[in-house]
Description:
By secondary structure, this protein is α+β, with helices and mostly antiparallel strands. The chain has 8 helices and 25 strands. It has helices at 54-63, 72-77, 91-102, 121-133, 146-155, 216-234, 255-261, 273-286, and strands at residues 5-11, 15-20, 29-30, 40-41, 44-46, 51-53, 68-69, 81-84, 87-90, 109-116, 141-145, 165-171, 175-183, 193-203, 239-245, 266-269, 294-295, 303-311, 314-321, 332-338, 344-350, 356-361, 374-384, 387-394, 407-413. Strands 1, 2, 3, 4, 10 and 11 form a 6-stranded mixed β-sheet that branches. A 6-stranded mixed β-sheet has the order 16-15-12-13-14-17. Helix 5 (146-155) packs across helix 8. It starts with a strand and ends in a 12-residue tail after the last strand.
Amino acid sequence: MIRDGILGYDINEKNCQISYYNENKDEPETLEASVDRYQIPLMLGYLKERWVYGKEAKYLQEMKPSLVVPDLFEKAKRREKVRVGAKAYDAVWLLAKFVSLTLEEFADIRFITFSVPYTNVDMSKLLKGIGRQLGVAKENIVVQDYKESFCQYMFYQPKELWQYESALFFCDGQVIKAYMLRKLNTAAGQETFVTVDEVASAAIAEYEAMAPIMNEEKAKSADERFQSFIQSIFEKKVVSSVYLTGEGFENEWYPNSLKMLCNGRRAFQGNSLYSQGACYTSMRKCNGYEERPIYLDETRMMEQITLRMRVNGKEGWYPIVSWGTHWYEGDGQWEVILEDTSDIEVHVETLTGDEIQVEKISLEGLTPRKDYSLRLSIEVFFMNERTCKMVLKDVGFGDFFAPTDFRVEKIIHLGGSNGQFNSMS
């Protein structure tokens, strides 16, 4: 049994993989699913009043396919009802059962980050809901896509590996894709922002030699095509390191391409990058590490909402919604103590310019109190990616002052991504 689990959980349509923090290791450890594989097939079955998963479910499917659920991840995303034997189940419940079975080795889960091919509000709700069913507090569950997992993984590698741009090639047996990690130019002063771009892709038909049984001529042709693919991507770029991941790179069909990749840079091959990147996110957040550098993409907020506060004796403009937040994860609640009943000023800063949007919140009607005994709760709700609502309430001050019915709402209109991300080349 592994206690105090700080986990990264890579999950996609075919498999899942689990990495966990081991304080005695320099990097996350990946859970072995079998003697030579870390991938767990995403399949769930029911036999003799017992749920089975992974390879056991795969074997069961060959004998009794009606007792096994294939395409479970897709069915859960569509919120389908699924029949297993004579009984119908909710696919989300089945996916949660699969996840819980794969995590039986962990006595308790302190923090979990799910890494998925893509994320949006529905994916976030699905996986965070499953995380809560595991008994994990909602603030200790993160959902991120593969590009961010790559980025988080790189943050923990030696700086020289991502001093310039870093490349990731992914091949799943159907398509080969290329991604580049790069720094962004923003108007945010000393802050460092990074992103991962998908820069090219090619159909797997162009690389027939990836099959386990290879034809020598086809292998040579595929190697030449991959070389041309690499050249087109690396042209006029300074690339510090290269990572190859996915089952398509498991056969050594690309010797000349590998020489090109290693020319003046370091190259790595393996299939645990996404789960380890997710685990690094869990470590970072669980242990209170500084959120620097900041990862951005076109789905994240280009604005930061700040209030002037004194925190631990230091006065300044502190974010209540930070850059890089998904709008659907930006809700929050705080309590503040006021010096007086002056209007509250809110600043909205943007990454694409120096101009600050200033919003005033009137506290008219709030009864003044002496000696810093005026306590308000501040709640932030996002109605959509461009609209934020702030609600301020008087919550009293212990036994000295009871709460009043003071309440004020403020709607703040944001610009949204609106093509701004693409301007930060």
